[in-house]
Amino acid sequence: MRHLKTIRAIADAGSLTRAATDPGLAQPALSAQLMRIERALIGALFERGRHGVRATARGELVLEHSRIVMPAATELQQEAARSARTSRATARFRLGGPVYRCLRGHRAQSGRQSSNVPALWQRA
Description:
single chain, mainly alpha, 6 helices
């Protein structure tokens, strides 16, 4: 995702210097990162010139895919975060087992139903 964000920032800014302000990187670091990305993809993503950069055909292809992948990845991160919150809530609820046994034992000793004990627990 970081690489796609870098490529999008460069394309949107139209120059490495202007794009370097967006991700908070210095221009030389951004240029080095772009070169590593291009090496990994085995080809130039941008044509560099005196007046900035312009996406190559390969760069356009990567940008096109990033418009699909980045929102989907963001949605996946949000779904995973929601799932993690739900899992933690379920785990905390399941830790109620000792409480249930304690309440059940108390009910058995006192011989009465407690209105404070949920109906689901009283069935046992």
